[in-house]
């Protein structure tokens, strides 16, 4: 199932850039609907490719929403246009932050799950740049606001990031420490990060640094799984770990 119409998101201020998001693919749960997870693709990909993989996972109580990022020029590719959740010059937490871009993506993602039924657990996950956008969404959820000042409209129960990095890390601690409520949300939000030790695109050290930055800023419920010999892709062992973790964190019972 897919939604063919594109959507526009400006990030909440008239002077911010407007982004046109692509097609959204939805995988309906095969069993009783207990959770909805938005899954975000990597740079240059689209929602369709991950929707097929997710549909095959033994997670029958999850509804998967797989959006497609806007097509934009990407500095890391010399300005060549491709699908990207935000502009990026280097795949690490040390590069310049495209706050407008990642903020607009976080707002779009939150809007996709804002109308889910009461009692449904909500999650966000992704691969590579999608993982980075999921982590940025986790920070917005804890802070309660997007960078543009708008309220973050949903409560996330689980965040998964595969082969990614933490964007906007320099402002992370200030956001978490902005209020007792933000600190409490950060401390309790379950996050699973997975990274291959042989990743030659988003280097393993950047995965490590992301975990360290999250924990140092008050995200206490961060799990980090590593895989020897794994490059910048996923393998069944990693996806099995994701399935087990989501089942436990979202309280899935496997019922049909």
Automatic annotation (TrEMBL):
It comes from the Eukaryota. GO terms for molecular function: hydrolase activity. Residues 25-247 form the Phospholipase/carboxylesterase/thioesterase domain. Gene3D superfamilies: alpha/beta hydrolase (3.40.50.1820). InterPro entries: AB_hydrolase_fold (IPR029058), PLipase/COase/thioEstase (IPR003140). This is Phospholipase/carboxylesterase/thioesterase domain-containing protein. The lineage of its organism: Eukaryota, Viridiplantae, Streptophyta, Embryophyta, Tracheophyta.
């Amino acid at each position: 199932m897919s939604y063919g119409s594109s959507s526009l998101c400006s990030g909440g201020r008239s002077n911010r850039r407007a982004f046109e998001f692509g097609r959204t693919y939805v995988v309906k749960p095969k069993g009783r609907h207990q959770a909805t997870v938005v899954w975000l693709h990597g740079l240059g990909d689209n929602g369709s490719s991950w929707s097929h993989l997710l549909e095959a996972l033994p997670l029958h109580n999850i509804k998967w929403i797989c959006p497609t990022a806007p097509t934009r020029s990407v500095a890391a590719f010399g300005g060549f246009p491709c699908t990207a959740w935000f502009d990026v010059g280097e795949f690490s937490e040390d590069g310049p932050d495209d706050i407008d871009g990642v903020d607009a993506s976080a707002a779009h993602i939150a809007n996709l799950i804002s109308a889910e039924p009461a009692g449904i657990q909500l999650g966000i996950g992704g691969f590579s740049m999608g993982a980075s956008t999921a982590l940025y969404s986790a920070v917005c959820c804890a802070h309660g606001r997007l960078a543009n000042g708008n309220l973050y409209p949903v409560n996330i129960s689980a965040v998964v990031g595969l082969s990614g990095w933490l964007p906007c890390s320099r402002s992370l601690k200030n956001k978490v420490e902005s209020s007792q409520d933000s600190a409490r949300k950060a401390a309790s939000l379950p996050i699973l990060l997975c990274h291959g030790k042989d990743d030659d695109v988003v280097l393993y050290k950047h995965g490590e640094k992301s975990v360290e930055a999250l924990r140092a800023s008050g995200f206490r419920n961060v799990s980090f799984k590593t895989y020897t010999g794994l490059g910048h892709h996923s393998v069944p062992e990693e996806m099995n770990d994701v399935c087990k973790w989501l089942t436990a964190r979202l309280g899935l019972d496997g019922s049909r």
